[in-house]
Amino acid sequence: MKKLSFTLLVLLFVMQVIAQTPARKKQMITLADKTLNFAAGQYKLMMQHLPDTVLPRSTNNMTGKLVTAKSDWWTAGFYPGTLWYLYEYTKDNTLKKEAIKRDSLVEKEKNNKHTHDLGFMMYCSFGNAYRLTNNPAYKEVLLTSARSLSTRFNPKVGCIKSWDHGAWEYPVIIDNMMNLELLTWASRVTHDTSFAHIARTHANTTMLHHFRENYSSYHVVAYDSTTGAVIKRQTHQGAADSSAWSRGQAWGLYGYTMMYRETKDKRYLDQAQHIADFILNNPRMPKDLIPIWDYDAPKVTMNVDSPDPTPRDASAGAVAASALLELSRYVKGTASTRYWNAGEKMLESLCSPDYLAKPGENNDFILKHSVGSLPHKSEVDVPLTYADYYFVEALLRYKQWAK
Ligand code: GLY
Q1: Domain 38-402 carries which CATH code?
Q2: Among residues 298, 263, 269, which one has the least CA distance to residue 284?
Q3: What values do phi and psi take at 367, rounded to 5?
Q4: Which of 54, 148, 154, 202 is the most buried (most CB within 10 A)?
């Protein structure tokens, strides 16, 4: 028995080493290049088909038609953000021109004080625009956005309020971790530490109240805004209050990895590793490492040809892949190899015909098979603009870090 487990360990080690060989990386870089070129072509078609005043969001799975959004929807920044990434890769000015055109639609949201989503909306769009152009006008848009987002922080609760809608007095969702990067960036460029203070306090409070013993997270934690006490823990987009909604786990993983990068606080790194381990050790994680929509989802027969008929969420896979590649850089040894290999495998799966669209199909989105909100029967097994954004980001990260 002992001999068998030793042999198994050696085998696992050898497999990990093989997965890290230069030949494997070379093959993956070639695949990433091919996929990025396809993505750029696909978004050039999107440019031609998209009405001037809106942003692409998804596909209506009843009619098959493109679903678009106005600038105040939480996904508004992902299309210009993806265009900026694809411009960075191709240096193709038509993509840059389109990114600038769509950013101009989103700009007015810098004054929006009614949502926590400003990080998604403004940092993905204008953050990339500023990073790539150094245009001071973009910096001003971002700083105004950071000020707007900060107005939603309540020191008594220690969190930014996520939503103004719903039955909760002070709801905070795990997704909110993603909006903190706008604030840490704002502190860095202004030397005003109040933005970073809000980000750190929010991350600390979330660490305390959003996570279960196994490091899976609740979706919504509702607070009392006067005392800061937790009133209830629930789901909104997951299978149950007690379940692990896949994209929520991915937002948490990405959020704490990012917070470690921004602060070098070891507690955030530990938290990110715990979340990664929950995801990667999950018994319901499929072999191709693209998560089902909720790790505790009931088995349902949607895609009868699929061996596991529970719908997948490619967006959760794309967010997790991008985060795992980054996390692997902050740890050493077998943990680092494990996170890198998992991120790489997720990308390889997403680059396969199982998830990648064919040219001109899929309403010109890049990835198929994501889930927006299954309990609301909304956006089930469709493309989603944020799946494309984090997929392209992860491909660029892979190419940069594989070297
Ligand atoms: N932030 C909303 C979602 O992940 O669906």
Answers
A1: 1.50.10.10
A2: 298
A3: -105, 150
A4: 202
- Per-residue pLDDT reduced to its tens digit, 97-123: 999 999 999 999 999 999 999 999 999
What values do phi and psi take at 354, rounded to 5? -60, -30
Best CA proximity match to 258, nearest among 220, 203, 309: 203
Residues annotated as catalytic are 117, 175
- Residue 247 CB less than 6 A away from ligand 1: yes
Asked if residue 243 has its Cβ within 6 Å of ligand 1, the reply is: no
* Residues 218, 189: Cα–Cα separation, whole Å: 33
Distance (Å, whole) CA 231 – CA 167: 12
Atom of ligand 1 nearest to the CA of 373: 5
Angle (CA) 180 251 155, round 5°: 35
List alpha helices for 210-313, DSSP H. Answer: 246-263, 266-280
Among 116, 163, 251, the mutation site with the greatest number of ligand 1 atoms within 8 A of its Cβ is 251
How sure is the predictor about 2, in pLDDT bands with cuts at 50, 70 and 90?
low
Q: What is the DSSP letter of 253?
A: H
Ligand 1 atom 1 nearest Cα: 175
- The set of residues, in sequence order, having a beta carbon less than 8 Å from that of 363 and lying 6+ positions away, is 46, 49, 56, 59, 64, 65, 66, 383
Sequence ranges of the domains in the chain = 38-402
Q: Is residue 196 within 8 Å of 183, Cβ to Cβ?
A: yes
Q: What separation in Å is there between the alpha carbon of 238 and the centre of ligand 1?
A: 11
Specify whether the CB–CB gap between 343 and 324 falls below 8 A: yes
* Chain segment 134-169, per-residue pLDDT in tens: 999 999 999 999 999 999 999 999 999 999 999 999
Contact 175, 145 (CB under 8 A): no
Structure tokens at 154: 């309540």
- Taking the CA of residue 175 as reference, the ligand 1 atom at the shortest distance is 1
Question: What integer is the mean pLDDT of 266-294?
Answer: 98
Q: Does the beta carbon of 205 lie inside 6 Å of ligand 1?
A: no
Claim: this prediction has a pTM higher than 0.85: yes
Residue 298 per-residue DSSP state: P
Ligand 1 within 6 A of CB of 175 = yes
229: pLDDT strictly greater than 70? yes
How many angstroms is it from 99 CA to the middle of ligand 1? 23
CB atoms within 10 A of CB 19: 17
- Residue 203 to residue 197: CA distance in whole angstroms: 10
Please report the atom of ligand 1 found closest to the CA of residue 173.
1
